[in-house]
Model the fold of this input.
Amino acid sequence: MSELANELGMSQYYFCHLFKRSTGISPHQYLIQQRVERAKHLLKQPEQAILSVAMECGFANQSHFAKCFRQCTGMNPKQFRKS
Done:
């Protein structure tokens, strides 16, 4: 965040404020949503393990991935893969 804010010549707080006002969500939530969208595409490839999808999308571990995925989609990664 601070690197983006510095590139734009503003404080991190002000950058986050403008981002949320513009998009309706925080920069962190936006990043999580983008990671989940990427994971949804990768989960359609059955040969790729859920753990490797989580790691490839930048999640710290499979548990954190599952929690974020469920919050964004209403189902866990395994359920999504089966649908």
Summary: Residues 25-82 form a domain with the Arc Repressor Mutant, subunit A fold (CATH 1.10.10.60). The chain has six helices and no strands.
